[in-house]
Amino acid sequence: TGENAQVLTQVGTMVGTPGYMAPEQIAADPDVDARADLYSFGVMAYEMLAGGPPFASVTPHALLAAHLTRAPRPLGEVRPGLPPRLVALVMQCLEKDRDARPQSAREIVDALDDPAVVSNGAVPTLALPAARRRRRVAAAFALLVVAAGATAVVLGVRDRTADTAATVARDSAQSHSVLVIPFVNRSADSADTYFADGVTSEIVSALTRIPGLRVASWPAGATGGDQFPSWQEVGRKYHVDYVLMGTVLKDSGRVQIAAQLVNTTDGFTAWANVLNPRIRDVFSAQQEIAVSIVNAVEPQIAPPAQLLADRGTRDDTAYEAYTRAAGFISRRGAASLRRAIAILGGAVRRDSNFAKAYAATARAYSLLPLDDATAGDTAVARGIAAATRAVALDTTLADAYTARAALYQASFRWADAERDFRHAISINPRDAAARESYGEFLLVQGRLPEALRELRRSMTLDPTSAGATATYATALAVAGQGAAALDTARRAMALDSTGFVTRLALGSVLIFAGHADSALAPLEAANALATRRNPTPAAVSAMLAYAYASAGDTRRAQAIAQAAQAARSPDAELILAHAALGAGDTTRALTALQQAARQRDPQLTAEPLAAPIFDRVRASDRFAGVLRTLGLPDSPGVPAEL
């Protein structure tokens, strides 16, 4: 209306409102996708917050030219005092390059849900009386959230592109969710527990490929649904609509699989069945269970073709070995992983074209260095070889690309790792584990906004993942969002109170917030749990050494560093660097960091050097040299928009 009335939609060769058209729409790009709508949202948001459009013109053609070629005046200049992260979000939506914009409406909704985005602790200094100014800004914020939500709904209906971020957002808003409890082994032989775990793992793998269905993993340390007063409580705690549970009885060449799907809203059974396949037909039984769950939960969904694909081998013994190995991999621990690798070796000797077995081998090798630091380069090289063989046989195996990406990361091959992470996610956008691993990679790279976004997606897909929640807490702390980080770390602890990873995350969050003394308790608990492994994971030793030194107990800090050196740990120099940083000895810390980088300390492929504990040395040329040696971006610190 008024002075801008002349820029509304008019008859012409393009469909759209000139004042809100994205550059690619104006250029008649045939590949226009949903991100054009996000540009339009940016124009609307700019106008709401600035009191006027980003471009003003008397003719539609001049307005189109401005959207195509001119940069808008920065919103922060037009309206000083707006929250910097809100300004950054709006300006990002207005990027000419659609790849530089948010990639889905869900990203915008999630950002506007974050209090740190829409508030900077002060009233924006707009040119309005104070009370009126506050009302206007509050109204603008509310309208932005509503508009973003509406945009998300519209795009969810209209967009049918392969954009993986939009896929995740759409699924999250519209999907049902299933929590899978590990199937119980009822066989007389306790060794068949691993087979039962493998059956569970394969059912979960099949379910994660189904659009419109979110699959939550059973939290580590949980003991079963009967620890809750009702199924409704299970649903509330883990944010799921259904729970799948069952038993496996293996005997005389046959397997009895009993499965039950419970609706957590009312506690009634939505589906149940008992299958008695021969060993050779276990794969078909697993697929039948997955399809039955789809029919019970989302009957309008047609299971994707890849869900109904064959098992990957005609050799019954090879497939049974693969299933048992999957159970060992799900248990983790160096001994279990080595056992899985040995079993899978037998499987591929029977069928050298069994791509899934090679992919599982790569997965086991990618996890082994995390549980056994002595595995070293040999495990990495063998894992890469197995993954490469898997993708040569079957280019649709997302797990193989994810495993190879992790192994490339462990080899400091950053570009190769990112390529494989992205390819894995493009194959299966609903793979929460792949997104978690990619988020960890981005955190190490110091690309904090991307890391936070990817980890949020992982948590949306699997809200019961203690690992993803713990990593997200760490990323929030690195980004300077201490309060949110602490809340998230405590949520991770609630999901898994038995492992060291969540305690390590809580201790790290407290250290990054400047509370090293408070970090000692969770880190000591993490160390007590981690010492069951041989050797103790470097991340635990390093953070505990830092906490002791920072709290003034240099004797204990040095004892940890000396123990690592005496054991000839490949992480000894990095642990020493943490102890020195905690004590404020930056010279010694830099010397140790340089040595760790030259030695290619494997922990440096997982260490976020953007963390606040490195702020004391960040401006040093020697620290810049460490980053160059590792092939990392210069000065990975907290970006201004965070």
Annotation, overall tally of beta strands:
6
Q: Cα-atom Rg, whole angstroms?
A: 26 Å
What is the CATH domain class of the domain at 2-171? Mainly Alpha
- What are the segments in which pLDDT stays under 50 over at least 5 consecutive residues? 1-16, 121-143, 145-174
**Biggest pleated sheet:** 6 strands, mixed
Question: Can you put this structure into words, describing what you see?
Answer:
58% of the residues lie in helices and 6% in strands. It has 642 residues and is of the alpha/beta class. Among the domains are: 2-171, Transferase(Phosphotransferase), domain 1 (Orthogonal Bundle), CATH 1.10.510; 175-302, Rossmann fold, CATH 3.40.50.10070. Strands 1, 2, 3, 4, 5 and 6 form a 6-stranded mixed beta sheet that branches. β4 and β5 form a beta hairpin. The longest helix has 29 residues, at 130-158. It is globular and about 80 Å long. The two termini are 37 Å apart. Mean pLDDT is 79; it is low at 1-16, 121-143 and 145-174.
Tell me the layout of helices and strands.
Layout: H1 23-26, H2 35-50, H3 60-69, H4 75-78, H5 84-93, H6 105-113, H7 115-118, H8 130-158, H9 164-174, E1 176-180, E2 184-185, H10 193-207, E3 213-217, H11 231-238, E4 242-251, E5 254-263, E6 269-275, H12 282-297, H13 316-331, H14 334-350, H15 355-371, H16 376-393, H17 398-410, H18 414-427, H19 432-445, H20 448-461, H21 466-478, H22 482-495, H23 500-512, H24 516-530, H25 538-550, H26 554-566, H27 572-583, H28 586-598, H29 621-630
